[in-house]
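Hallway conversation turned thread

IA: we were arguing at lunch whether anyone had actually written out L-threonine dehydratase end to end. Turns out nobody had. So, for the record, here is the sequence (506 residues) and right after it the structure tokens. Reply here if something looks off.
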Amino acid sequence: MDKRLLDYLQRILNARVYDVAIETPLEIAEKLSGRLENRVWLKREDTQPVHSFKLRGAYNKMVHLSPSELARGVICASAGNHAQGVALSARHLGCQAVVVMPVTTPELKSDAVRALGGQVVLYGDSYSDAYEHALTLQKQSDFVFVHPFDDPDVIAGQGTVGMEILRQHQHPIHAVFVAIGGGGLISGVAAYIKAVRPEIKVVGVQMIDSDAMLQAVRAGNPVPLSDVGLFSDGTAVKRVSDETFRLTQELVDDFVTVDTDAVCAAIKDAFEDTRSILEPAGAMGIAGMKQYVSQHHLRGEELVAITCGANMNFDRLRFVAERAEVGDQREALFAVTIPETRGSFKRLCETIGGRNVTEFSYRISDHREAQVLVGLAIADRGEAATIRDALAQQRFAALDLVDDDLSKEHLRYMVGGRSPRSENERLYRFEFPERPGALMRFLSRMHPDWNISLFHYRNQGADYGRILVGIQVPNDDLPVFDNFLASLGYPYVDETENPVYHLFLR
């Protein structure tokens, strides 16, 4: 065995982590296993006292400091999870902790550091910015710097995750999937696994817009990224360290890059199996595993994903829920062009059939054609092509938007606006029971004698669906129209005189 690898094995075996950390469970993910046709295990580092593995490395480093060093206090830079590990370790060891965090850090994480007794300094847009500022502060003071990944004791502390996996699962394992930011976790895990059971593959997972380690491996040395994506703030590192690069280059078998939608889908996967909500970095291992399974056509294998963190801001869940279905290829999004003639809207609904509609948006704008944004729940990506073919058979042009970021991030929220063709328009909000096919049943009951000029619906996961409908009704027909509304049997509110409607839609 390589001497340096042996040294890390000894460090990991002798690491001091369990004064503050727990041995986290290795749990089977039943639903995900069934979907992927492999046995999927989740190493639940999100169940640590600070909801992240970072506690292991931070404490292992700090517990090895001398009494005089602890008396000086410690300083670190962190996007959040290492900060909590340092703060909790400092409280346990009775020393002062100063933590520099990017201003983009979720408030949940900075508040948690303060609650643990750490002094928070916010600086920069990424971990790397905070790191440079922490070094400046460290030079101006006498604090001991606790690095989140570029330290053998930190790496060894994280390596205890790998030690636990092999102790908890003594049967064959095909691969272990590990999120990479600075590389401390994968370095420690890979060091232990390759020293003890080298046949097990270690696969690194990076965000497609924060892939500093993969870029380093390709270049043969660490290279700084000019910018990093911030969705997965826990892995937003511009440059990996020389030591984590060396270990990763030597020991990691393969790499996978994942995008935001895939991570959102993985957060949902984890919730469905564990009822826990992972942060983006914590779900990257699952996202990478799913992609790896698809690329390599794996079946019947034992796979482990490390769920390395669960410090998620609640308000970010809105974004995650929106993108999860697209990321897991369970929602198809189309821009459909139909003739602006009576009956076209109903014919479009009939073509869609009994599929579960997730979104429906339309605003009258042209005499000849109508543009409709349609979201549909699908079982797999192949079903989107089937739907597109069915629309084409009805001579409805359909543009697949599932990979179009402009549509997913902005345009789906912007369909509407003023229309010169909205004469005699009346605006109504309706509620109906939210169940498969309910929206289509609602649409099929709309009276054909009045033209639909605006329609907006988005499935929000509630018990009742809410739609906004603009209907052009001549004044002479209003008594008959009122009878029609009553016959629908749905609760409704007349918004025709709402001043917001007149400001933005009339």
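OS: looked through it. The chain has a mean pLDDT of 89.
IA: good, adding that to the notes. The radius of gyration is 27 Å.
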